[in-house]
Amino acid sequence: MQEELNKKIEDTMRSLDSIEQATPNPFFFTRLEARMQKERGIWDKISSFVAKPVITFACICLVIMINAAVIFSSTGLQKMDNSQGNEIATVDEYTQVSSTLYEFVNTNP
Predict the structure, then answer these.
(1) Distance (Å, rounded) from C-alpha 45 to C-alpha 51?
(2) Which pLDDT belongs to residue 45?
(3) Phi, psi values for residue 77, rounded to 5°
(4) 55 in a domain, yes or no?
(5) Is residue 12 included in any domain, yes or no?
(6) What's phi and psi for 84, nearest 5 deg?
């Protein structure tokens, strides 16, 4: 068993003898430098700013907080509307009764 293990190690070491250093394609560095020196437009700047995880997380949190504020404020307004609804109904009834007192009936045809 030890001999098999030593043989595998030797085979692995011999396979490393023919390895050469990797080289990039021709003109790779020229294209890389051209891309790095290229002027960025306004949309590239905006998209790179918005694509940052911190900005994205902050926007999502802001939207969630605005939604929560709208939901909780609408619940409070519904309670307030219900309490004022009874008062408005009595005022409407009062104005209907008082307006009929001042209507004149035309007795002449």
Answers:
(1) 10
(2) 84
(3) -70, -35
(4) yes
(5) no
(6) -80, -20
Q: Which amino acid is at 41?
A: G
Q: How much is the pLDDT for 57?
A: 94
User: Within a domain: residue 15?
Assistant: no
Residue 76 lies in domain: 50-102
Written as six digits, the tokens of 62 are 């802001």
Backbone φ, ψ for residue 98 (5° rounding): -70, -30
In a domain, 85, yes or no: yes
Q: Are 56 and 50 in contact (CB under 8 A)?
A: yes
Q: Which two tokens stand for residue 70?
A: 């709208």
pLDDT, averaged per 10 consecutive residues of the chain (109 residues), comes to 90 83 86 83 85 92 94 71 54 53 58
Q: Tokens 């900005």 correspond to what residue?
A: 55
The SS3 call for residue 84 is helix
Query: How large is the angle between the packed helices 53-101 and 42-50, nearest 10 degrees?
Result: 90
Total domain count for the chain? 1
Structure tokens at 44: 């590239």
Give pTM, 2 decimals. 0.37
